[in-house]
Specification:
Helix 3 packs across helix 9 and helix 5 packs across helix 6. This protein starts with a helix and ends with a strand. It is of the alpha+beta class and 341 residues long.
Amino acid sequence: MPSRFLKHSPQGLLLGLALLWSGTAIGQTPSRSGFIFIPFEDRSGFEGKWNVGTDVPRFLAAYVKERFAIPTVSPLVVRNYLEETGNRQGSTDHVLFWVDLYRRFRIRYLIAGAVELFEVNRFMTGQPLLGGYEAFKGETRITFRVYDLDRTAVSASPAQILKGEADGDFSDRSLSITLFGKPSDRTMEFRDLDRISFGSEEFNHTVIGQALFKLGERFSLELESAMPAIKIWSSTSPDSLLALVQALDTLSLLLKQETLRGLVIFIEGASAFINLGSEDGMRVGQKVKVYKEASSMGNAVDQVGELEITDVRGPHLSLARIVSGDGAIRKNDAVFTIVTR
């Protein structure tokens, strides 16, 4: 089990040092803005070797840490800490244990939740022993709650500030060809999933790994929408705290931002359709800037308005309401947005 590995590894020693450190320096300092992720309830029915109740929020903790450059404590660290302290409070969802975590790490927010869906599906057409086509899809969905531990520690009852859900899916539509029953590379990957280490580079290239990246981005955008200040928390987080939480759980993700360019393809009243959709990372509530036809992003002189996505209609189609620029936005105007992958 991951917690067993951590306990008998250098990370286990680091956790002990962290507890000593937290009982001295941290005890006299105010809380820092960041997130403690406790293990999620697993409602997915997944039957593989991965412990998705711990692994999925662990992935999310790594994603949020990398995306916003803020401290996060992973559920692996939380679970190990529960064992190190002798399981005094009984379980990770016990409010007294939350207060204990808060006093140790002095990180303000805690995220609890449930993994509702986690699965990989294989679709085939044709005759298995002769030949055909196959495709694969990974899907995951969570529900989550965010609690303010500053207030929880004072009231000794959970102070919930946000409740939401997020999902991610990825389809490999390459339709691998299978000939005379010979398995494709994707088939071998599908059969060997249990042998792949969760969160490894190899894992991240699988369909379920790609689905988790989409989940991480949508989850991050939910947090950012409800807690806009998250974008400036990094300026208030000391490097020592970031280094500490990285040392306690070494799972790390390489994220990159990508600028997407699309077009306004139709205007109807106060609404517009653009040719960016689900496969481009569009989500309801996302805002995109509109520039004159053939313009480049960043030229303020050419910006004519802004749109807000109200419905994602297809892989490369979204409906948006015109936030600004009504009457100035035209068909074929350029739209730009930045997505993290």
